Amino acid sequence: MVQTETPPPQESQSKIPSLIKRNTVFLASAQAIVGSTFQLVPSVAGLIILRLTGNIALVGLGQGMLGISRMVIAYPAGKVADALGRRAALLMGILILCFGAVIIYFSVVAGNFLVFAAGLVLVTMGQGAIHQMRIAAADMYPPKRKAEGISYVMSGSAIGALGGPVIVTYATDYSRIESLDPYATPWLFIPALAVVSALLILLTRPDPRDIAKNLGKYYPGIPLSAGNRKQEGSSEKESIRPFLSYYPIIVALVVTSLAWGNMNMMMAMVAVVLNHHGFDLPSISISVAIHILGMYALSIPLGRITDRWGRKKMLILGSALSGVGAFMTPLFETYEPITIGIFLVGVGWSAAIVASTALVGDVAPPLVRGRVLGIVELTSGILSVALPVAGGWITGVYGFFALGVMGLGASIPTIIVAAFLRERSPAVYDHKMPILSQLMTVTLDNKPNHR
Predict the structure, then answer these.
(1) Is residue 96 a contact partner of residue 122, using CB atoms and an 8 Å limit?
(2) Which helix (H) or strand (E) holds 425?
(3) What are the tens digits of pLDDT across the range 124-152?
(4) What is residue 27's three-state secondary structure?
(5) What pLDDT does residue 237 have?
(6) What is the DSSP letter of 41?
(7) Which of 99, 233, 257, 435 has the fewest C-beta atoms lying within 10 Å of its C-beta?
(8) Inside any domain, residue 78
(9) 299 in Cβ contact with 24 (< 8 Å)
């Protein structure tokens, strides 16, 4: 049976050790620097595909490849994170990211779509491995502040989002002066910025995984949730299968999958929507940057609210916001409402991802946590592939209105699944499984033992 305790109210006011604060600053800074290059995929990759293929139905392939790459890298990155530490997984992701960026530069100059696709897979694979940053943050914080800790690191990408348009604008101007390809030049910024991020990750000591294994040492006297209690005899080789049949993990899996899929679809198509209405590349980049600000700029207040309200309420709120934003984005011809819509998609994604990652941290022990998140990321990669590709096809056949309806519809299953979650108080879950879990053939006998 799952043994849970309700932590005392004063836990939310507990002091964060200076070492944890330092590591959080390093991780958030690393996320900000390397994250400034992440918007090149939604703002530039789709237009490169359109130029190289001439087929609007393939524009969503760029974001689709992000899903494929996350599927490929998610579990291996999680396994590395559990076995060797979170830093090893993050450094692996940065290395892959750099190789992919160089390949993309030369493929765009040569006009070779297949080589471009290979480079894009590597870039997005590196980005996928860097998502272990969220688990690294969850590792270092106690139950009632876990979502807050995740939000601190995620907020680094808000700062990075501000650098995205600067990179694109500078690269565009420089390429015009030097007669270079404006779609190729921005990718050369990735290796230089990634090196700085790698140095910050190396300075993050001790490894967040090791902090999680001994969390009571850093927060003496604070009762720990089931996922943070040290388990006797646990090891990196422990099976994760029992944890995947526990309903909170199922909720995290479903919500994360649809949140990523819907966000990737709209992120891929917003460039097409804006380009269709006559807006230039810098304007598109600014709109995407505002979307990314929505994804990360509000993550700190959203994290604190998640710790105060509970994971369930935030999962439902995030799903609703994402659906409304996805419905708005393709319906307008003017810049402001389109950008507001894609901003709401970002805010909804942020709320859902902060809450679902905290959910994983609540119930999965440190030595399996990376792999559990890897499985969640792997399954979410399926919809990250399917929805952007489907969105491009639907837009080409039925128009932008159908795209909006599809985006709204994707939020409904997440609200339903989250509504069945039995959360007695933040980070404390009921033993009883909801009816929905029985329909999914999940039984109490399969639940992980957190004694």
Answers:
(1) yes
(2) strand 423-425
(3) 899 889 988 989 999 999 888 999 999 99
(4) helix
(5) 58
(6) I
(7) 233
(8) yes
(9) no
pLDDT at 446 over 50: no
Q: In three state form, how does the secondary structure of 323-374 look? A: HHHHHHHHHCCCHHHHHHHHHHHHHHHHHHHHHHHHHHHHHCCHHHHHHHHH
Single-letter amino acid, residue 224: L
In sign, the C-alpha dihedral spanning 107, 113, 114, 119 is positive
Query: What is the domain count for the chain?
Result: 1
**Do residues 24 and 141 make contact, with C-beta atoms less than 8 angstroms apart?**
no
More confident residue, 408 or 51: 408
Whether 81 is in a domain gets the answer yes
Q: What is the DSSP string of 48-111?
A: HHHHHH--GGGTTHHHHHHHHHHHHHHHHHHHHHHHH-HHHHHHHHHHHHHHHHHHHHHHHHHT
Quote the pTM value. Answer: 0.77
**Has residue 173 got a pLDDT over 90?**
no
Cβ neighbourhood burial of 425 (10 Å; 0-12, 13-18, 19+)? exposed
DSSP string spanning 243-280? HHTSHHHHHHHHHHHHHHHHHHHHHHHHHHHHHHTT--
- 157 vs 176: which has the higher pLDDT: 176
Is the model more confident about 124 or about 239? 124
Which residue range is the domain that position 244 belongs to?
17-209+240-446
Tell me the β-bridge partners of 425: 428
| Helix, coil or strand: residue 288 | helix
- Encoded amino acid at 51, one letter: R
CATH (domain of 432): 1.20.1250.20
Task: Please tell me the distance from the alpha carbon of residue 411 to that of residue 388, in angstroms, as a whole number.
Answer: 15
- Cα–Cα distance between 375 and 108 in angstroms, integer? 33
**Residue 218: inside a domain:** no
Check residue 147 and give its pLDDT: 93
